Amino acid sequence: MNIGITTVIYYAIEVYTWLIFIRIILSWVRVNPYQPVVRFIFETTEPVLGFFRRLIPPVGMIDFSPIAAFLALQILATVVIRLLHSIGIY
């Protein structure tokens, strides 16, 4: 079984996207912020979401940073994987 670098990059971005999605769900329900899994999810996703939150401030009670992060991650995955394929790295 041969796992290429593009597969690893694709799945890493997929996992990070799911972590952001889980964080969105957790923000709607009452959770213990000191629970290790919740803390891991928040600490892992905050750098990216914080960056986009500074670029696109929340409008009222709606935070658009996860949407921007989803789009940026998908664009990043597409560009990086196509670039690697174009130079012959699989």
UniProtKB/TrEMBL annotation:
InterPro entries: CCB3/YggT. Pfam families: CCB3_YggT. It comes from the Bacteria. Keywords: Membrane, Transmembrane, Transmembrane helix. The keyword Transmembrane applies. GO terms for cellular component: membrane. The chain crosses the membrane at residues 7-29, 64-84. The keyword rRNA-binding does not apply. Belongs to the YggT family. PANTHER family: PROTEIN COFACTOR ASSEMBLY OF COMPLEX C SUBUNIT B CCB3, CHLOROPLASTIC-RELATED (PTHR33219:SF14), YLMG HOMOLOG PROTEIN 2, CHLOROPLASTIC (PTHR33219). This is YggT family protein. It comes from Desulfallas thermosapovorans DSM 6562.
